[in-house]
Every structure is written in C-alpha cells, then in structure tokens.
Amino acid sequence: MKSSSHFGIGAFAATAVFVLSLATASAATTKVIFSFGEDEGEYADTDLETDGAGNIYGTTVLGGDFGGGTVFRLSPTANGWVHTVLYSFTGGADGGEPYKGVSLDGEGNLYGTAVTGGSGSCEGGCGVVYKLTNSGGIWTQTVIHAFTGGDDGSGPGARVTVDQRGNVYGMAPTGGAYGLGTIYKIHQGQSGAWTFKVIHTFTGAADGSTGSAGRMIIRNGHLYGAATSGGTYGSGVVFELTPRGGAWNFKTIYSFKGQPDGSFPYGALLFDAAGNIYGTTYYGGAHNIGAVYKLSRQPVGEWQEKVLYSFRLGGDGNSPISNLVFDGTGSLYGTTSEGGLGSGTIFKLSPVSSDQWTESVVHRFRGPPDGAFAYNGLVVDRFGNFYGATVHGGDNDDGSIYKFTP
C-alpha cells in the first residue's frame, strides 16, 4: 500500500470457525480489458462505478495531461473497450491525486475527492471535493469544497456517497478539531451554492480516528462506515450515524480488538438482505495479515462480530484493503493487496453455514501484462459482470482494469 505509517495493531482475541482451501478455482477467468499508460493516467487506486449502459468510471492518482491524475470512462463496443479521459487534474485549485474513484448521481454526474490541490495551509493544498457535470457529452469540473486543513479536515482520499436528494457525504482522514479526521455533508441550495458541514469529528477515543477510504453506505436513512484506527482497543471501528433534528448522532457499533480479531478496517462495508455487515481488515486475524468479518445486529440493538476467515502465508493472499461483493449464490468475493504470487489475489468465500465458510483463491495476479496489486475490490454491473482495478500491472505496469468471470 502506498502509505502505511498509520496502521495500528491492537490486542486481545476473537474466534471463528472456517474451512481453508488454497486450490485455485479453475472455472473462474480474469482478463485485463485496459492497460494504462502515462498519458491516459497511471496508478489506478480506484473503486469502479458502472452505469446502466455498461460504462465503467474510475480515477487514476497520477498521469493525464498535467500529471495530477484523471477521471476516466471505459465504454464497451463491438471492438473492445474505449477509454476516455473525462478530466485531467492540474494539481492546482481544481485538486490533484484523486484516490478511490467517483460516485454517480441519478442525473449522470460524477462526484469524487482529490487529496491535494485546492487551497488551505497544507503543503501542496489540503484537497477538494469535486463534481463533474455531463452536458451533452461535455464534462465540466466544479470544486464544491476546498479543505482548509482546519476544523473541516484535510487530505480527503475516501470515495463519497450521494443520496437521492443530491447531498454528498464523505470522510477526511486528517485535520478536524483533533487532527484525526472528519465526516462531512455537502448540500446544494436553491441558489446553486454548496454548503459544507462537519457532522462528526473523530477524537481518537471510542469513536475511532482516520476515516477509512471506503464509501459510506446509506441504509434506512442511517450512514454506516469504518474508521481505520482508534476505538476502545486502538484497532479501528465500524460506526453508525443517525440524523436527529438537524444534528447527527454518532454510535460505535463495533471496536476491533486486534489479532486474532480484525484490525485496521480500510475498505467499504457491505450489507446483505438481512442487514448483516461484511468487510475486510488489513491486519488482524489469526495470523495478523488480514481477515474477513461479519457483523450481525442482535435483538437488543447491539452488534455481534465474527471473523469469517483469517488469511495465511503461502499461496493465499494477505493484507486486504478492499470491499466485498456477493454473487448470485451468496458467495463473497474480494481482493488482497499482497500475497498469492506476490502481487495480490482475488478470493472467494462460500457459505457452508452461518458460521462456516470455505475460502478459495480464484485468481493470483502475476504482474505485467496481468494486473498487479489490487488495492480495491470488485464491482458488479447490472449484467452480472465483475470488474476491478490494479495500481500496477497491465502492459505498461502503470495499472489495469480487469474483468472477472466467476
């Protein structure tokens, strides 16, 4: 991972029953559908977004016309995929180094964050939240908030969430009143002006610190997400935010305990139809190289956590920082940033019972011309296709977009 200085290790334990299988599933296939080059963008540390037409959207941290990163679209055609740079960042007032991709609203506009540029007192700028407006195929970028590095936060590297009313929610990993990050909401008024509001400031205590890079989830009017460190045991938390009378009530629903429990939750959360939450942690698990966990709400409103799988050395992957996705049979898929052949893996967890899952490695990234180092998980489009990104690999070792067929 590009920066790991803030990773934390906790203590204590949690147990789970799992079944391990290191056999690679032969039926699954992984194919690179696009390889980045410097002019097109490089270092694709991006979650992907898809629209109803099957287009894929994402970001690259570097490259483009000015070297400050790009927002791109891949469009399917009869002759393959067509790559279009929708916007190239200058690294100035418009922002630079966009991480973790974009989010699509109901009108086809895109929203995202860039960790540098903008304004503020930070070296290189404190970062921005931006909107890309599509008008007749022409994309126009607007900065809807430039972070100051003060109480509003700094260095936003998390993907944003857009609700049905067009409100934008996100997290900044640093800055804020305690220097440990913020959760914010941005609202556009009738005049067209955008209003920024901090709805939670991380203290580093039971609420955690340093919001994860994963997009928060809106469910039944509540916001759910993770903070990578802090909490009761210093190993990160999963939280719930509830709107109440113009304010937001923050509740820690689980504090990770460290090995053999999870530690350092970095990716986005996933809900199933029953309201259970699934995710990955970079550290922790039985071998302290990552875990997959499940949170289940109990009748009294509390949440119970189970480690579904602990990664282990060898041909297995390790250090997942991705989200998870379901297939049509209830199996979970995700990626690891390392392990396998050294460049990360795609893994599958198949349920045997509510407490027992079988793990298999369905692809081991090999490096150029295959992908390498999957710092993000998979997205499933409305046709049932799985897609993901790698920060290296591809023909030029500048990153790739791949299609995975279970």
The total count of helices amounts to 0
**How are the strands of the largest sheet arranged?**
1-31-30-28-27
Largest sheet: 5 strands, mixed
Low-confidence stretches: 1-26
> What's the mean pLDDT score?
92
**Count of DSSP strands:** 36
Distance between the termini: 26 Å
How much helix is in the residues?
under 10%
Q: How would you classify the helix and strand content by structural class?
A: mainly beta
Q: What integer value in Å does the Rg equal?
A: 20 Å
Multimeric state: single chain
Shape from CA axes?
Answer: globular
Portion in beta strands: over 45%
From the structure above, extract its key features.
single chain, 406 residues, mainly beta, 5-stranded mixed β-sheet, 5-stranded antiparallel β-sheet, 36 strands, 0% helix, 45% strand, disordered N terminus
Give a written overview of the molecule:
- This protein is mostly beta strands and 406 residues long.
- 0% of the residues lie in helices and 45% in strands.
- It has a 5-stranded mixed beta sheet, with no helix packed on it. Strands 15, 16, 17, 18 and 19 form a 5-stranded antiparallel beta sheet that branches. It has a 4-stranded antiparallel beta sheet with strand order 2-36-34-33, with no helix packed on it.
- A hairpin with a 2-residue loop joins strand 16 (217-219) and strand 17 (222-229).
- Mean pLDDT is 92; it is low at 1-26.
